[in-house]
Amino acid sequence: MGASTNARCDAGKVEMRGQPTEYLLLDPEIMKRLPNILVCDVGPDFPIEVASQVGGRAYALLTAATSHVSQRTLRIADAISRHWLRRNGSPYLSEIEVLAKGARRPGIYYLNTSYEWGCTTAARASADGKSALLQRTLDWEVSGIGRYVVAARIANPLGTWISFTWPAFTGVIQAVAPGRFAAAINQPTLPRRLGVEALDRLITRATIWNSKNLQPAHLLRRVFETAPDFEAALAMLQSTPITTPVIFTLAGLRPEQTATIERLPEAHITLKDAFAVNEWRATLPAVRHHKAFENESRLVAIRTASAACEPDFEWVRWPILNADTRLALMANAATGEILARGYEHGAPATRTLTLHEHNPS
Q1: What sign results for the dihedral spanned by CA atoms 19, 24, 27, 33?
Q2: Residue 113 near residue 149, CB atoms below 8 Å
Q3: In DSSP terms, which residues pair with 258 in a beta bridge?
Q4: Are 137 and 321 in contact (CB under 8 A)?
């Protein structure tokens, strides 16, 4: 989880989902003792290759995400998920099957058909006004995954791209393709049908099972694998039918190449004002949604955050930073500059990773 952070920190009291916490930035000596984010050089079948390279950490995400679920329940969920992936002709089913065999425990199929996270994302002009910058934090209630994030550097005929991911996960939630674009997914909150979150989650899941479309995380992976530029990526994210509502944020090479795409399964609204959290800004859904955590406050905070690509992540503070924050990322596809840091319980859990990737254009 990283070193203890109750001492030797900058002043600045923040509230972590109701729990007062005294840290914002760690002492440099503490930061030195944190682990590095692993960088794995891999090919197109990157989920399998990453799992092979990280050894004992290969199924850390699976363990963390399913530790509260019984083995019997996971086997049932796996069977349903595998059937659904086969029925839908998932382009990544063969990878999931290999990963499931390697895990020697249930849950891989279910893990790769579900996502439950919150995020704060911006695509904006860079500080010098010459390019576009993607800023992103990922919030997930699963503890432990902040220190296990991996930078998968993926070889591709269009140029190497980097996905910030976890071993055994086949989708893409945030990534950057130097010379092409950077993008990330935000999840809108659940539709409020019965008013009880657990029951509404089951209803939403049933709706997904009835869909024969592509999962949002697998669509974003396909975009990075096949789209040569910002315009092609935008068209795919706008038009490809998907299983469930999602919010994509896309940053190209030029400062005006920014977009947030609010997606329903077969419709979209695209916003040039590319700031996204976890509630719709333009889409009018058919039913009301559960309220997202500090949604308006996070939107204000990311709008006013600095666009400078600086390793201290000064903009990652309350309410963007909270107890569920697991990753912070800044990526400039034009310059190839990428900064990332894992988080646990409102504090850094890894050192800052700095990459300067070659721009093939």
Answers
A1: positive
A2: no
A3: 251
A4: yes
Each residue of 205-260: pLDDT tens digit? 667 777 889 999 999 999 999 999 999 999 999 999 999 899 999 999 999 999 99
Q: Which two tokens stand for residue 355?
A: 């990459």
- DSSP of 18-58: TEEE--SSB-HHHHHHSPPPEEEEE-TTHHHHHHHHSGGGT
CA atoms within 13 A on the CB side of 256: 1
Cα–Cα distance for residue pair 292/262, rounded to 1 Å: 16
Contact 360, 181 (CB under 8 A): no
Burial of 289 per CB tally in 10 Å (0-12, 13-18, 19+): middle
Structural domains of the chain sorted by starting position, each given as residue range(s) with its CATH number in brackets: 14-54+116-356 (3.60.60.10)
Radius of gyration over every alpha carbon of the chain, rounded to an integer in angstroms? 19
Contact 70/97 with Cβ under 8 angstroms? no
- Show the tokens assigned to 246: 């999602």
Q: Is 173 helix (H, G, I), strand (E, B) or coil?
A: coil
18: tokens are: 């109701």
Going by the DSSP 8-state scheme, the letter that residue 137 receives in this structure is: E
